[in-house]
Structures are given as structure tokens and as C-alpha cells.
Q: What sequence folds into this?
């Protein structure tokens, strides 16, 4: 069973973390609570650079990710977090061989 994986690498502007993180966490929680196709939404912090945040998101398929992009909560997050983001890199993957304990 394959899954659609998204990673997002944010480099925040200096001093932007305190305003960015509540927006990010609200978006992550809403995604898990309101989107049936969102299975995982992890928010990671780079241990050597707290201004760098990475997301690891797992969706049932590409359509579920598109539903995420079309959601009201993502629109709010995207708009309100933009002033704190210096750079954002999105990558798309297919999970083909899940190996878990």
C-alpha cells in the first residue's frame, strides 16, 4: 500500500519562530482532525538551527494532499505564516516500502 509523502523545509526569518510555531501547530492539528486523508503530520525542529522547521506529512494519495491545500485551515496558515518565512522547499515522495517496528 503506497502513500503520498510531503516534506516541507522552512527556513524562518530571524525572530520569526515564536510567531510561526503556533500557526504551524494549529495547521498540523486541524489537518489531522479534519482531513480523513491526512494520516501523519509531524513537525520537526533542526537541532542545530531552531529557525529551520521541517514537516513530514503522510496522505492517503495525491487527491488527499490536494484537499489539504484547498482547506480553509491551510489557507489561513499559508497566508498568516508567510511574513515569518525566509525560504520554503516542498518535496513530494511516494512511500513504497514502509518498514516499521
A:
Amino acid at each position: 500500500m503506497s502513500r503520498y509523502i510531503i516534506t516541507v523545509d522552512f527556513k524562518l526569518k530571524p525572530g520569526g519562530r515564536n510567531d510561526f510555531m503556533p500557526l504551524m501547530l494549529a495547521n498540523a492539528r486541524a489537518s489531522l482532525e479534519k482531513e480523513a486523508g491526512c494520516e501523519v503530520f509531524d513537525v520537526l525542529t533542526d537541532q542545530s538551527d531552531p529557525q529551520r522547521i521541517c514537516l513530514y506529512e503522510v496522505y492517503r494519495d495525491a487527491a488527499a494532499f490536494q484537499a489539504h491545500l484547498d482547506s480553509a485551515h491551510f489557507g489561513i496558515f499559508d497566508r498568516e505564516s508567510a511574513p515569518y518565512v525566509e525560504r520554503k522547499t516542498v518535496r513530494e515522495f511516494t512511500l513504497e516500502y514502509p518498514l516499521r517496528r
User: Anything to note?
Assistant: The chain is about 35% helix and 40% strand. The chain has one domain: 3-93. The two ends are 17 Å apart (CA to CA).
